[in-house]
Amino acid sequence: MGLSVLGIFHTIIGVVAIVSALISFVRFGKVNLNHMTGKLYFYFTIITSVTALGISKHGGFNAGHFLSLVN
């Protein structure tokens, strides 16, 4: 079972968001949206949440979709 192109994109963007948040947290003690690492985290997390809506294969709106939207 392989990942779709959207799944690969989603995974890469999600990993970049997590790494950006970690770097920001180490440097500033918080995710600082005034710096590039914080901005990357913020925008890439939004992109990750939106792409998650397209990769769910459980049919219909479910808890995963809801969590993606409230993130």
Q: Low-confidence parts lasting 5 or more residues at pLDDT below 50?
A: none
**Helical amount among residues, as a percent range?**
over 70%
State which percent range the strand residues make up.
Answer: under 5%
What is the residue-mean pLDDT, rounded to a whole number? Answer: 86
Distance between the termini: 28 Å
Major sheet summary line: none
Number of strands: 0
Number of helices: 3
Instruction: Classify the secondary structure makeup into a structural class.
Output: mainly alpha
Return Rg in Å: 14 Å
**Shape estimate:** elongated
Order of helices and strands: HHH
Question: What's a concise summary of this model?
Answer:
This protein is mainly α.
What does it look like?
The model has no long low-confidence stretch (mean pLDDT 86). Helix 2 (36-55) packs antiparallel against helix 3. This protein has helices spanning 5-28, 36-55, 63-70. The protein is mostly helical.
Q: Mind sketching the topology for me?
A:
Blueprint (H helix, E strand, L loop, with lengths): L4 H24 L7 H20 L7 H8 L1
Helix pairs in contact: 1-2, 2-3
